[in-house]
Structures are given as structure tokens and as C-alpha cells.
Amino acid sequence: MNKISCFILFMTGYMCIAQQLTGVVKDGLNNESIPGAKIELKELGVATFTDANGRFTLEGNWPNEFIIHVSAMTYESKTVLLTCCDSINFTLSPDPHDMDEVMVRVELRELQGSLTQKTDYMKLDKLDVITPLSISSALTQIDGVQMASYGPLNSKPVIRGMQGMRVVTFLNGMRINNQQWGGDHGLGISQVGMESAEVIKGPMSLIYTGDATGGLLYIKDGSFAPQNTYSIQMNTQFESVNKGSQNSLVYKVSGKKFRMSAAGIFSSYADYAVPDGGYLSDSRMQDYGGKFKLGYNSGKWNFELNYLYSNSRVGIPGHTHDTLATPASFIIEEQDRGFSLPNQKIQNHFANIKASYFLNSKNKMEFYLNHGYNNLKEFEEKIFTPGIDMYLNATSFQSRHYWNPSEKLQVLSGIQASVQSNNNGFKAEERLIDDSDQYDVGLYSSLSYDFGGLLFNTVIRLDQRSIRSAEFNNDYPNLNASIGIRKEWKAKAKQDIACHISSGTRAPHLSELLSDGIHHGAVRYILGDPTLLSERFVQLDLNYEISNEHVSLILNPYATIANNYIQLSELDSVIDGLAVYEYQSMNRALLYGIEARLHYHPHFAHRIHFETGFSNTYGSELSFAQQGEDLYFMPQARLRSNVRVELSEKKAFGFASVLLQYNHFFSQSRVGPLETPTSAYAIFDLGCQMKWDAKWPIQLSFGVRNALNNAYVNHMSSLKSLGLTEPGRSFYINLKWQIEGRNKANK
Question: What is the DSSP string of 145-176?
């Protein structure tokens, strides 16, 4: 492994007040200074960048010891624990794999608590060549992750064949609850201003929750401006396929102790064009929102406040009561962005406060107080009276303690509690689920130890969930655990192997228990089953990586056994022109597959990067007496390939990079009993980026999605049953302009 070495030149003692941290960052090969390297105290939210000579300065009143993170484009980054240094020299070794949009790493992640677990880490703020339409579409560059879509603008991640309530989303440490059981709206979180996303696959996230049986998605907001600076970033994007535009403005300012950022966004999309001509009726969307972030640190305390608001108006394509409807029934000749019936209005408020207290060099406490509000209105036949009007309020608290008694031992323990209330508006004409309350309490503890290079981790978690409604009351106690080992060594190439066995338990959601009605957004009539039991999962995950300066290969086979597996099964009946689906429980199911990734960086062409990845998940009933049925809604096997060419390295103006993406989705014939197969298809995207590194830098990206205008149906789309295709060829252009400066007053 390429190393980053830190040499402490001057020590001021164990206790420090009003420290000034200075240093230089240099290239480990040629000893030249590295301008633009990021120096970050992640636990405190403090950061700066090196100047043209590779020098940096940070000032503040910090704890006795702190963790510093140093990173630079095309160099390997690493985290170092320091004790009150006045002057530090860093040497960074080149790492061509740092150009990857997705990295499988331990040291970069925000998800903490294990020395053995790797996560897929994506830099959302660096996806600026082929800019994604949503966070869900960005995540599809991760092997093993696809998206369940209801049109390209409404999608949710599918991790190893599991979605909905089995995939839990966290934003800045707060669990997001926004009716994610429904398949007709997205995450409700814009990618504007977001810094990174991390994915844990399967039930290996016990220090966060015990019911993320499919996986956990952790989204982190963008960092504050460098210390004693401000920045204004303006971004606009246009899409030709739906005449869509997205516009955002982000303002950041930081002093010595106070830091603040604020952002606003407005998006508008008309009906999208299909490859065979015409436009899909009611595939339009409008969204606006904003967010605010405030940080403060003094001595041993660090505080952070986050707030996000979003308001969306979404059309409902594919809505019909006609039993003889064909795909042509939903295609119109003229594109429109005005809303007609039916449509949905979705409103979200997410707020949380995080407080960190550094007791001493070996102990740290974290406290979270969170609240989320979601309102989903569906207007079906009346403009002012909603057919569906659902309100969800969720308040949660978390406290956790980090204890590092030695360099080899790490212990993390915590407690979580939450109250969630689901209510229907009094004007609503229909109810998908009854009014209910949900109460959760969880306790967990994680222990990591380094046995001379063999890393070991174990986690145990106890949860209690109670559901209360007028027609249903039940309690669901759950106990889960995980154990993992990891070994890293280097001979001619770096090798790394990790193995985890973990369990997860998910109590049935009220929608699975008591649904009985039409879900227009999902184009289904859905029935629940009040006798469903908790799902219980056990996963075996093996991750092997071998890499050198030019090549890296990752192999990740896995297998999961699920007891009482709940799935939405199609019945052989139709109600009001819609297919009828029912939540049913399977005694035992098996999900297994493999993810593989290869990166090649030629020695003779340092500016070219080749990357390819393959992922596939099989899911079927596990039966020893006879062959079990295949599971519903299993994603297609996928082969993806990227070629990136870096054109400009030191030029102030010119083409920066070109990116070619190719995704091949294999046919899916292993389907549920009444589910229809899906044909194979391929998508080819091309993007270019230009830059102008002036005092106020400008980036211009442009390209084309689905360049060959292929007509295809996504197997995971809610519109698949109607034979409706995804968008055709779309040309896009994205302009980003950033204004930067120094503060006159430092506070």
C-alpha cells in the first residue's frame, strides 16, 4: 500500500489552548509541493486547503488530541491522530485509483465503528462529467446497486435485490422516514450540495439500525467552507429529453469557531420523450427546496445543526382504469409541464442537532436529536380534495460513546429511541394504511481489536419495536449480532481479505400488515396480511482485493438466508383495471450473488482509466423437498464499463476530461410465478468537461445519455407492467461557477 507519512517537527505538550496548526504537503515521489490539498479535522468540521506552495494554516481551540485527514486529487489519502502540533510536514504518494467515482474503502468512510468493514464510498460532489439526475441514479455506479423507478425522476436504491423498507437511509446521522414503503416517490433528498454517499450491503450496519436487512445508505452534506473564507456556488443544468432544468445556489462562510452554509434549489421537468416518438403523459415533475447548516466548536465541544426542506409536485404516469390499456394509451404528441389529475404533492422537513464532547484523548461522546416530517397528498379526481393525505412525524434521539483505551482496541456503545406517528388527513377520501404509532428502542455495542495485523470486530444489538393502531397492536423484540475479520498484507501487490457473518431482523410495516386498496402511484391494488412475522436474515459476505500501481481487482461473493421473507406477490385477479398484489410470507428464501470490479491504469498512458464491474443477484425460495419459486423483483445482471480520459492537468483553461459509460443489462428470466421476463438492453452515455481555473473557477459539462436512443424497459420499474419504456436520447449541459474569498472578520 502506498503510504502517507506524517513527521511532527515541533510538539507543544499534551494540553493546548488556542492552537495554530501549520504545515506543508508534498509529493512523496518528487518532493514537490501539492497545491489544493485538503486538510480537514472531520470531527470538528474544520478544513482548509494548501496554497500554491503547499502550505496551510488552521487556528482554533481544540481538544487535546484530534484526527486530521489529508487528501488531494490523484493522491492517496489517510487519517492521522495528532497531539497538538505546531508544524507538520505531510508527504502523499500518488494513487491513480483516486480518480474512481466509487471507492471501496475503510479509511474514507463516515460510517464508523468497525476496523474490518469496507463500504462503497461515492464522492457525490465529484460526479460532474456525467451529472446524475438524482442520488439514486448516482448510486447505480456502485456494483450491486440498481434503482426501482417510477420514471427517471422518482427512484429508490435496490441493494442486492432488496428495496423499500429493507434499505434504510441516513442523512447526517439522522434516519430518514418518508413513506419509503411506497414505490412511487423518491428519497426526497436532492444531491445539490451533498458531499458523499456510502453504502453498506446487507445487514452489516448494526451500530445504526437492526432492520436495514437489504443495506444502509448514508448521505453526508457538503463540508463547510475552508476556515476564514466564504464561497458562493451557482449551478444550472438542462436536459433535452424533458426540457428539464435544475438550478441551485449554495453559500458558505467559515470563521475560527462559527461555520454556516445555506442552499436553495428549483427544478422543473416536462413529460419525457420516449425513443419511439411521442411523450409519456404525466411523467412531469417540479421540485423546490432549501437547506441550512450551522457549525460551532469551542474546546471540547462541537455542535452542528442541519435542516433540509423539499416540496415536490409529481405527475402519475400510467394511471388508468381501462382493462384494455396499451402503451400507446399513455403516449401524447405534445410535451407539457402543467399538472393534471392525478398527481402527488410531497413535502419533507428534516432537522437534526449533533453535539460531540471530547472527554479526553481516549473517550468521546456524541448526541443526536432528530425530527422528520413528511406529508404525501395524492389528488386523483378532485383538484382541492386529496384522495390520499398522509402525515408522518418521526422524532428520535441517539447517544453513543467511543472508547479507545489503546491503539489496538476500539469500543463503541450506544442507545437509540424513536417515536413515529402515521396519520391520515381528515379530508382524505381513501386510506392506504390506518393511523398508527410506532415506538423503537435499541441498544448496541461494537468491539474492534487488532491481533497483530488480523483485525477483528463483533457487534451485538437488541431492539424493541411496538406498533399501535385501532385495528392492530403488536410488539417485536429482536436480537442481532455480527462478527468480522480482515487481513491486509503486501508482497508484490497489496492484498486485502475480509469476511463477515451478520444477522438482521425487520418487523413488518403497517403497509404490509393492513393495506387494502388502490395505490395509483404504484399502478397496483395492494392487500396486506396481519399475520406476518418479523423477517430474519443471516448474511455471509466475503471481500477480496488485490491491487498495485496500475491494476486493482475486487471480488465480493455473498449469500443471505431469510426466514419469513415478505414479498409483494401478484395474484391472478384484477380490480378496477389494476393487477392485484398481496404481501405474502415465504418460510425461507435464499439470495446470493457476486460483485466484481476491475480497474486498469496503463503505465504508458497515465491519463487513461479503464474500469469495469459486474453484479448479479439470484433470489429463490429455499426448499429441500422441491425446487423453490424465484422471488419477485430481482434486478437484472449488469455489466458496466467506464473509460475516463484526463485531458488537462495544469492548464488554466481547456478540456478537463472525457467519460464514456456503457451499461449492459442481461435478460431477466428468473421471475416470480406471475411476473413477466425482461429483455436485455444496453445504455451508452458520453460526457465531457471543460474548466477555467480563474480566480472564480468555472466548470462546463455537456454530453448525451442513452446516446443510441435505445428503447428499453427497466425490470425494476413500476411502469413495466404497462410496457412503458424509459426516456430516449437526452442531451445535457451543466454550468458551475464558484466565487471564493477571504473573510474580513474571523469569528
Answer: EEEEESSTTSEEEEETTB-GGGEEEEETTEE-
